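fyi for ur records
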Amino acid sequence: MAILVTGGLGYVGSHAVRELVSRGERVINLDDLSRGHREAGSGSSVVVGDIGDRELARRVIRENGVDSVMHFAAFTSVPESVVKPRDYYDNNVSKTLALLDIMIEEGVKMMIFSSSAAVFGEPESVPISEDHPKNPTNPYGRSKLMIEEILAEYERAYGLRSVSLRYFNAAGADPSGEIGEDHDPEHHLIPLVLRVVLGQREKLSIFGTDWPTPDGTCVRDYVHVNDLAGAHLRALDALRDGLATTAYNLGNGSGFSVKEVVSIAEKVTGASIKTEEAGRRSGDPAVLVASSDKLRNELGWEPRFPDLKSIIETAWNWHKSHPEGY
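which gave:
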């Protein structure tokens, strides 16, 4: 049997693929290369194509004996989703529905879904637990919540069991330095900070300094990408053991402001990082910090990189050795 990983040449997907391959799983990696990189395949069998291509998905599943899916393929930029909502609903919702149709037709009954803390919107309490109200403030978050709700209904109707993993801020790179974060354009804070250090950007724009936080800048929970990958493997094992459809929040449980990230990056790199104040971005919550107690208690997950300094160190190791990405 095999695991189909969609978007497995992207940032988080490639790290999950690497861990799956390293433990001997047979991985079929379906990616359209719009935002992924062939070099990030880590020994998986790569198929180039779109998850919305029903005939391709059917052929890949049948020919490889696929019995489970890890679904990473999605557009993931909050600000982009605000100005291009149609693209996000088409790619993240419509094409996922097409994939689910084929899974049901072919008898594939297990999915691990790459969800997001963006399903919560502006938090009413911190840290955020799984039962926190879900009021996404942008199309990206709404697209992820739609699929979570659809998956719950698909278990009842079709017996398709799933685990949705709600990432907070994915960060860092594999300690080997062989794979890492390479987006174009880049929207994530830590690689943007490191691009200033590398001289690829003149300065870092800080979007809002008047948020209701201790220093006025947004606070986020940063979780190492390898820890995200490890959670996917634990979720896969739990589904194989009969786990019913559920969702888990996935973060370190500690919040760091934009200014704190800059300060720690300066210590890691030994460089001074120039910043400028800019206006708030539409769709951004002020604070997002996870409670991962459910994941820890039910699946035994523990982060291997619990502190921001070690996360930034792995990111810096990747970016300084791959200044132009892959």
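The radius of gyration is 19 Å. thats all i got for now
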